Amino acid sequence: MRLFRKLSGLLDPRVGRGMFNTFHANWWFIRWPLDHVFHSKHFTLKELRRLPSIGSDHFPLLTALQYSPESGQQQKGLTADADDKARAQAKQAQQQADADDVPEPGAR
């Protein structure tokens, strides 16, 4: 996730706010933060909390964001360096992935 955050420039609202274990809702002895939310600096966090079980094996994660581009620019994210970019390229080559594998919104 750190590499993704560095390359995308997106922010993880959970950072610095504790552990939000969203999986497994039925087994208290093996829970971890499986589900993720990322946002751009155009948004700031209003609320973040795990909700009670709704019958799924995942807990719902309530994330309320506010569109506030001016104040959001003060948020600090991670920055990718040359090693991070090389690592990502190596992972991409290993998976034989390219831009054509990414679907475009509205395309069928």
Which helices and strands occur, and which strands form pairs?
Blueprint: H1 2-8, E1 43-50, E2 61-67, H2 69-72, H3 82-95
Describe this structure in words.
By secondary structure, the protein is α+β, with helices and mostly antiparallel strands. The chain has one domain. The chain is 23% helix and 14% strand. It is built from three helices and two strands, in the order αββαα. The protein has helices at 2-8, 69-72, 82-95, and strands at residues 43-50, 61-67. The chain has a two-stranded antiparallel ribbon. The longest helix is centred in the C-terminal third of the chain and has 14 residues, at 82-95. The protein is globular. The two termini are 29 Å apart. 5% of the residues are buried.
Q: Which residues sit in consecutive blocks of at least 5 with pLDDT less than 50?
A: none
Q: Could you give a short account of the major beta sheet? A: 2 strands, antiparallel
Approximately how much helix is present in the residues? 10-25%
Please list the strands of the largest sheet in the order they lie side by side. 1-2
Question: What is the average per-residue confidence, as pLDDT, rounded to a whole number?
Answer: 93
Characterize the quaternary organization of these chains. Answer: single chain
How are helices and strands ordered from N to C? HEEHH
Number of beta-strand segments: 2
So what's the overall shape?
globular
DSSP strand content? 5-15%
Q: Tell me the radius of gyration.
A: 17 Å
Structure class: alpha+beta
Question: Given the structure, what is the number of helices?
Answer: 3
Q: Termini distance?
A: 29 Å
**Count of folded domains:** 1
